[in-house]
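Per your request, structure below.
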């Protein structure tokens, strides 16, 4: 992988999309300061200091969309979990791709596609990780949050964490593009916090309440609602 560091940027995803044609496949764009980061459902990703990760991975697997690309966020989610586990913490996944430690958010992912004249120019996998945050700064976040330095009880080397993560990402990336979600299904489910629990899922402008039953072979969530109807959700967010 190539690494491109920016001192300050509004959003690594936005910058990567705007410059995607000049960037090589598997370029990691990361910033010391991100002033307008955002997550899924257009949530703001709060800047909590320069020793955290604000990054985007640029991927160019083809010039057309492939169904498996929608699962790359879940693949990255598993690789982030594996990296957290190297620090002896126990990450859990909130479908589809938020990561929690002790029921508090530590990382989130936002995937976007750069398309021009009907052709795919690149995929941009943006992710934020709370690595080194003072506890009082976590109060600025709109949901319970934590940081790896708090959970591991030591300062975290940002560059070491990022290189470890990207090495894990690259190790199985080509195989994942070929085989899809099935390659990581067991690893994903083993870390899934939400299964067999009552959840509320936001799907576009609708909310569905029910029990999360399973994850399908293509990464969708099987949910039985309060009336006993089964839903298979390819998109959405557990609230």
């Amino acid at each position: 992988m190539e690494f491109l560091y920016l001192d300050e940027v509004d959003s690594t995803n936005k910058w990567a999309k705007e410059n995607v044609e000049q960037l090589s496949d598997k370029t990691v764009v990361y910033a010391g300061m991100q002033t307008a980061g955002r997550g899924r459902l257009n949530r703001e990703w709060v800047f909590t200091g320069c020793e955290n990760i604000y990054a985007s991975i640029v991927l160019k697997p083809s010039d057309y969309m492939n169904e498996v690309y929608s699962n790359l966020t879940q693949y990255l989610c598993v690789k982030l979990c594996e990296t957290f586990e190297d620090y002896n913490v126990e990450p859990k996944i909130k479908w589809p791709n938020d990561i929690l430690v002790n029921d508090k958010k530590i990382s989130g992912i936002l995937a976007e596609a750069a398309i021009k004249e009907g052709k795919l120019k690149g995929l941009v996998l943006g992710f934020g990780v709370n690595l080194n945050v003072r506890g009082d700064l976590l109060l600025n976040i709109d949901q319970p949050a934590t940081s790896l330095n708090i959970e591991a009880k030591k300062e975290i080397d940002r560059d070491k964490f990022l290189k470890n993560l990207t090495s894990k990402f690259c190790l199985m990336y080509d195989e994942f593009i070929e085989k899809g979600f099935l390659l990581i299904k067991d690893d994903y489910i083993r870390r899934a916090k939400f299964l067999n629990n009552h959840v509320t899922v936001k799907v576009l402008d609708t909310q569905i309440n029910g029990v999360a039953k399973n994850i399908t072979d293509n990464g969708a969530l099987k949910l039985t609602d309060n009336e006993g109807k089964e839903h298979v959700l390819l998109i959405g967010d557990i609230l």
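The first strand starts at residue 2 and ends at 9.

Regards,
D.
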